[in-house]
């Protein structure tokens, strides 16, 4: 008798579950909030470097009954550099995934910390992009943003973003180096010099680029001027070029900002702060495309990562990009 | 009924005792099993640079009779910062242990690594001779 009851209970429970599972859930269109609303996402990734953009997308919308959009503005805690703007086109993705822009007003006006767009189109929804060009004044500091939208019936909404730390790093992209010509690299200037210019800037030359075909494993090389003569064969250094740079070879560290490839790898301030290449040599031979070197200058003032974007064996040249951190 | 339970209990107990009394392989100071294997040799040798790429210009020559490893590295290899990798016969271990970068720059006094067999009774020192490709 008892056992019978016990058996019945799970069956009843199972039935209940089955019934529940089979019930069709009806979809209901969500009801719109009767107010002006906004939302922000940050589009750019990685460390925020001076001279580069931080990119946001600012979306705002309101119900038809509550008027139309009047203006949108962004206030940055530190005034953006020239090139800071809020898009006057509202973007959405087309059927092929490409951005489709609709003009909603005149180009944005930046006054001090505030960048503003006034709507001329009669619209109740828009998605505007905001590009904040990081100024020199923000280096090593953090910056916050306040996005604000206004509607024609006087409603205002805001959305705060940040704080975002601005990196102390500098970056220089696509410097062309050539064996026997533009071969002298200065980390301090983040520039490449030929022999004559190198002599004029002798105290700043940290690396020498060269290409040799023998031995075969020599190929593209980045060496310190003070390296052993066997690692810079056939090179007569310009007068005064004699710094001893520490060089540590790295493979497959493809920083996204330097390589601009698909790899989501970023070198940040912390990497330079924690870098320890005290026992590194002063030469790196057989550099290949997508390889790189960690560098510490002789005066201990700078640490850098030099990335080899591409190499050309016939022209004996290469294209390099540099990220530099001041200690 | 009680009798059956007793028999069952004894039947279960016997294998436990039997397993319990079987001798385990002893463990050495590194927590590794000391086995019965007496083989003692290096089967493969690799040298990696600071970028974790090989610096060998060709395969390392391992002489298990003379107990030497001869490896030629590329011109321009940073000999002070190399990661050696030994492949050993089953159960063997290496002494000294490799814990990080090794300085091979003193070519005149080559490094010696001792292979210790699985039973920890055979010890064979292997000398690593590094030459630089010219």
UniProtKB/TrEMBL annotation, chain A:
Residue ranges of domain DUF4466 in the record: 25-326
Species this chain originates from: Adhaeribacter rhizoryzae
Protein name: DUF4466 domain-containing protein
InterPro entries: DUF4466, PARMER_03128_N
Superkingdom as given in the UniProt entry: Bacteria
TrEMBL record, chain B:
Gene3D superfamilies, per database record: 2.60.40.2340
Protein name: Uncharacterized protein
Naturally occurring in which organism (per UniProt): Adhaeribacter rhizoryzae
Lineage of producing organism: Bacteria, Pseudomonadati, Bacteroidota, Cytophagia, Cytophagales
